[in-house]
Amino acid sequence: MRNRKWKYKSNSVIIMVLALCVVFGVASCTQEREPCYTPTIASLNIECVHYTSDTATTVLDTALPKAIFGALTNNGVKAVIYPQTANFTISLSSVANSCQWIMSTDSVAYPFDTLSFFYQRKLQFLSNACGFAYFYSIDSVHFTHNQDIDSIQITNTSVTNNVNTKHLKIFIHPDF
Questions:
Q1: Which of 25, 47, 134, 171 can pair with 94 through a Cys bridge, CB separation 3.0 to 4.6 Å?
Q2: Are the C-beta atoms of 59 and 47 separated by less than 8 Å?
Q3: Which long-range contacts does 14-17 make (Cβ < 8 Å, 24+ apart)?
Q4: Using CA atoms, how far apart are residues 93 and 131, in angstroms rounded to an integer?
Q5: DSSP H/E element including 128
Q6: Every domain of the chain and the residues it spans
Q7: How far is CA 108 from CA 11, 70, 160, in A?
Q8: Are residues 153 and 142 in contact, defined by beta-carbon separation less than 8 angstroms?
Q9: Could you tell me the pTM of the whole model?
């Protein structure tokens, strides 16, 4: 009888130890992912400036009243109206090497100007936590002269996830 008790106790201790090993083994295999603190979308940062009408050489950095930027897609226009500002952020297409946006300096102004962006895409590894993101290299920007755009200057061709870099400077007509 004594052997039976000892055998019963030793079996339950072994089962308990094995169960604890399994629990600790499973718990040690699960990894906590570190959070991603890096922006994963590369944005094109635009600054709009315009000349004073008296000299046409002095550049003013002034806010536009209610500027509109709209992405031209297969499903129509997806527009964003910005409150009074001179700095804008838009996205480039990750599935094509070009995209088009419309722009107006004021929400009541018509017709819009069309901006056509031509660029190269590159898939970039950010980190294990953040994964991959598309970065771009701007080749050229074409635009219409329907409304207020005088000219466009590419100030930085490399579009990455750095939110502090200005990529384009759009010069608005002096009479705006």
A1: 134
A2: no
A3: none
A4: 18
A5: none
A6: 1-30, 43-172
A7: 83, 14, 33
A8: no
A9: 0.71
